[in-house]
Write a structure and sequence with these properties.
By secondary structure, the chain is an all-alpha fold. The protein has ten helices and two strands; from the N terminus they run H-H-H-H-H-E-H-H-E-H-H-H. It has one domain. The longest helix has 35 residues, at 2-36. It starts with a helix and ends in an 11-residue tail after the last helix.
């Protein structure tokens, strides 16, 4: 009886983790609804909530052992669906509605590039890196709105990063890092808090230049990716 109760508890916990992952899609929906009514501040904060959920749900899933207790449920597919919504589709809408780009067609670039990226079998390397730019379009969209960046500069970044999806450079996968794990993940947490504060209280904290200061973490992320990652050989399909 005790073992049966323990198994039921473990399965319930596994379902709870999947529900937590799915809640990232709800946060993405709230980001869309906020942006649709012109509340871009709330929309950006909801995008950060969605990003934060994704940052920790994988670690929770591995700790709980969701694949062991729910072997017939594809948690990776769920994660990909939620990630495409939160990291790609919602930021594309945000870019259009905030007038960060001169025409909606430019928002198609990240959508098309990331559709390719998410479909690649080797989107993650065997040594636990993302291969190709890992579709952090939510980060790009927030900076395009929060910083005094022209539409031309934003379009330039969209083009550059869309191309980067196809370039097999390895990028840090924070929750799977063998080196600098705590530095990278605590830095990511600090980045989220700093950006959220800068968005939530822009007038009160304007003198601190928090959004500009937060750029230090993306700079760290790219630098360490270049240092630890490098280029990945793409596997060629068999004839």
């Amino acid at each position: 009886m005790g073992d049966e109760l323990e198994q039921r508890g473990s399965r319930s916990l596994a379902w709870a983790v999947h529900a937590f992952t799915a809640s990232g899609a709800v946060a993405a929906l709230l980001a869309v609804l906020a942006a649709a009514r012109g509340d871009f501040q709330a929309s950006a904060l909801w995008m950060l909530v969605s990003l934060s959920i994704d940052a920790v749900d994988g670690s929770l899933a591995r700790k709980v052992g969701v694949s062991v207790w729910l072997p017939d449920f594809d948690g990776r597919r769920l994660d990909d669906i939620v990630d495409f919504l939160g990291y790609v589709f919602v930021p594309a809408l945000f870019l259009v509605w905030t007038d960060s780009i001169p025409h909606w067609g430019f928002a198609a670039l990240p959508i098309l590039a990331s559709a390719y990226g998410f479909s690649q079998g080797d989107a993650k390397s065997d040594d636990h890196f993302f291969v190709g730019f890992p579709s952090y379009w939510n980060v790009v969209a927030i900076y395009a709105w929060a910083l005094p960046i022209s539409q031309a500069v934003t379009v330039g970044w969209l083009i550059f990063l869309s191309i980067a999806v196809f370039v097999p450079l390895k990028y840090l996968y924070p929750s799977h890092m063998r080196y600098l794990f705590w530095t990278t993940n605590l830095g990511a947490g600090a980045w989220t808090c700093v950006v959220a504060a800068g968005i939530a209280w822009p007038e009160k904290l304007a003198h601190l230049h928090l959004i500009e200061l937060s750029l230090l973490y993306p700079a760290y992320y790219i630098a360490v990716s270049l240092w630890l990652g490098g280029m990945q050989r793409r596997a060629r399909g068999k004839a």
